[in-house]
Amino acid sequence: MTATPPLFEIDDLQVSVADKQIVNGLTLSLRPGEVHAIMGPNGSGKSTLANSLMGHPRYTVTGGDVHLQGESVVEMSPDERARAGLFLAFQYPTDIPGVSMINFLRRAISARRGEEIPVREFRQVLNEVLGRLQMDEQFVRRYVNDGFSGGEKKRAEILQLGLLQPLVAVMDETDSGLDIDALRIVSEGINTFHSDDNAILLITHYQRILRYVQPDHVHVLIGGRIVESGDASLAERLERDGYEPFMERTTEGVLSS
Amino acid sequence: MTTAASEAPVTPRSEYEFGFHDDVEALVKLPKGLSREVVNTISDIKEEPDWMRRLRLKALDHFNARPMPEWGGELGDIDFNDIHYYVRATDRDESDWEDVPDYIKDTYDKLGIPEAEKQGLLAGVGAQYDSEVVYHNIREDLEEKGVLFLGTDQALREYPELVREYFTTVIPANDNKFAALNTAVWSGGSFIYVPPGVHVDIPLQAYFRINSEDMGQFERTLIIADEGAQVHYVEGCTAPIYSSDSLHSAVVEIVCKAGSNVRYTTIQNWSNNVYNLVTKRAMAYQDAVMTWVDGNLGSKLTMKYPAVYLMEPGAHGEVLSIASAGQGQHQDAGAKIVHAAPNTTSVITSKSLSMDGGRSTYRGLLKVYDGADGCRSNVRCDALMLDEHSRSDTYPVMEIDEKKVDIGHEATVSKVGDEQLFYLMARGLSEEEATKMIVNGFVEPIIKSLPLEYAVEMNRLIELQMEGAIG
């Protein structure tokens, strides 16, 4: 396992939003088959990290690098990253009125594959993933995220994850706003997707999703950098003690840097 | 006509595919300029009844007397003395496609017009080339039921009383400056009469083509749906790209008698050296339904506000419009609905796009007369800008003189959102593909009301226009 080269490497990443540095030198390495969880309190840079990994134009990478399968992605546009196999499950998916889910999904899956997916095959995989997520077929007739409930939006993200089969999935607070049943279905969707060939980066505030999706590594993000890494038990410690004990440590760290 | 702008080369809309022209000598081409003599000559050529000649001359006086409208687009560059008011390429209006002169046939072949008829997608086809209708044909079974579909000139020759009964009853000669101009020099256009209770189940189509340089096309269309009749008419328009501008100033009058249902669909794709100044109006009587579907993609300046006058209880009027303005274009389009009777209903849905420095204006009027109680109306106009240097304005005017009415109004102006683009791009769509998808979604409510083949065409034209504007 240790001999496997990393699938996704974040190396000393620094990110600014409107000239304010939010991510302060973050380093992380994901090997195929691994699930990493990044946990952090509000304002620790979780969403900035997620969006900048996908190449959101509002976030500027001011230092460091990100490699997917050995190739740097920081100069790539979001669509190039997606086609290369990177995926972001959005915390707040945007609605696109007038564009049907089915049309959008077919375009997206064709873009990811680099060729048009035949209609029959598309139907087949679509129905399979819909069934797994206990979603009605009529769902894909609706406009993209338009009028979706919070739970439907998250499920639609997992539907895309299942269809697009990325190499690395960054899940930005996928558990927020879900009731316990929806959380279980969404988690099952993530687990079904997960294989020895891909890697998952779960970004979350709470520990509860980690009961369903078992992480190999847990990292604590505070002040835009990782202050502690460990195994699944670290998440339990956070649940018990909160982020407080780690906060002091970063202040020192930031001050001394 | 030459304009100040013509000194600089006209920038064609990217990939405007109908910009070619035929190099042919016209059979008849009146010298440039507008005068009583020109009007008389047109009337002479057409061997018209005297009432029509008098009407034309009266309309010319109205035209000369009226000032240029100053509230809409920039009209100052139009030089009325630099236009050919009548250009005729052939001396016949054929009903057999094979008899149409080859060069004209080639033009329409390039435009794909006879194909739809061959495939049985249309109940009838008309084609106008410059000033005259060159082809009209209608399915035999409809003809047997008494449906008339022919050039307006031909109708005036063959059914003078029918034409006289309705001509200018919906849009009087003095309605506005350009309606007056059209009445003075009109030529061509379609005449449709559908007898009581007859349903024309698939569309009748007309295709308007300006070929000559510096010319004005002034077609005159008159549609009469008798009681309980039903008809859908579709028109398409293209023109070559010349360095000087052309003028298209049509008048369309529609009479929807009790219980009738008329739908009029326009997909206007003039090259962007054409001034498109059109007056379209329908009168809808008891329980009649009138729908305008208006797509404006081409032209330099379009000023067009399809109107429905709801004259008797139960009448319903609807305007669905899409306008898309690219580089050097101004689409000043909208709708006008007049509730002149109680318990009438209307819906206006407008979607306008602007890109690449283009300008879209929604201009609408909703009028409810005192006493027209129980009226319901819903107006929705949305504008989408694709970039920072394009422009979008909305002028929705409401004059409501009756209290017991139910009026809804909603207007939005937005830019293609960064978050929407990022979302689609994060799924692998290129910026161009993502923008197209957002735009397609924006116009979707109108597109889905079009017959399939027109919906496809409309989407294709919008995409073509966008290709120059993005990336």
Report what the structure shows.
The complex is a heterodimer of chains A (257) and B (471). With 257 residues, chain A is of the alpha/beta class. Chain A is built from eight helices and twelve strands. Chain A is globular. Chain A starts with 7 loop residues before the first strand and ends with a helix. Residues 252-257 of chain A have low confidence and may be disordered. Chain B has helices at residues 36-45, 50-65, 102-111, 113-118, 140-144, 152-158, 160-166, 177-185, 418-425, 431-447, 452-469; strands spanning 28-29, 87-88, 124-129, 132-138, 148-151, 190-194, 204-209, 216-217, 220-225, 230-238, 246-248, 251-256, 261-268, 274-284, 289-296, 301-304, 307-310, 316-325, 330-339, 345-354, 359-368, 375-385, 391-400, 405-415. In chain B, a hairpin with a 2-residue loop joins strand 3 (124-129) and strand 4 (132-138). The A-B interface holds A 54-58, 77-79, 81-83, 87-88, 90, 93-94, 96-99, 103-104, 107-108, 111-112, 143-144, 160, 164 and B 417-420, 422-431, 433-434, 437-438, 440-445.
Summarize the structure.
The complex is a heterodimer of chains A (257) and B (471). By secondary structure, chain A is α/β, with parallel strands linked by helices.
Global structural class of chain B: alpha/beta
Overall body shape of chain A: globular
| Helical stretch tally of chain B | 11
Protein structure class of chain A? alpha/beta
CATH topology of chain A: Rossmann fold
Poorly predicted segments of chain A: 252-257
* CATH homologous superfamily title of chain A: P-loop containing nucleotide triphosphate hydrolases
Largest sheet of chain B: 12 strands, mixed
Strand content of chain A: 25-35%
Along the chain, the helix and strand elements of chain A come as EEEHEEHEEHHEHEHEEEHH
Using CB atoms under 8 Å apart, which protein chain pair has the greatest interface?
A-B, 30 and 24 residues
β-strand percent of chain B reads 35-45%
**CATH architecture assignment of chain A:** 3-Layer(aba) Sandwich
